[in-house]
Amino acid sequence: MLKAPEFWYQNKISILAILLLPVSLLWIIGTLFKKKFAKPIHSKVPVIAVGSAIIGGSGKTPSVIYVCEVLENNWIQTSYNFKRIWRLC
Fold it and tell me: Pairing relation of β-strands 85-88 and 79-82?
């Protein structure tokens, strides 16, 4: 099972964290701005999005393949995209 890095749970604040604080505040403001003014995208077909905060190794790809197989076994056409590689089933 994946574990969070140990430095996430340290009680002391590093100089790097202090220097990056203004950048994180700008990031938060940008995210709030984007959420307020972004228009939702409406698809003509149902979409299942699979993702998480963990970049790699959390089992997203096998999960997507399994979901596609289950849907295909029920006569539902699927396609998926992994790193710009499309597969239409």
Answer: antiparallel
Is residue 61 very low, low, confident or very high in pLDDT (cuts 50, 70, 90)? confident
Q: Is the pTM of this model over 0.70?
A: no
Number of neighbours of residue 8 by Cβ within 10 angstroms = 7
Which three-class secondary structure state does DSSP give residue 10?
coil
The full DSSP string for 18-87 is: HHHHHHHHHHHHHHHHHHHHPPPP--SS-------S--SSSSHHHHHHHHHHHHHHTT---EEEETTEEE
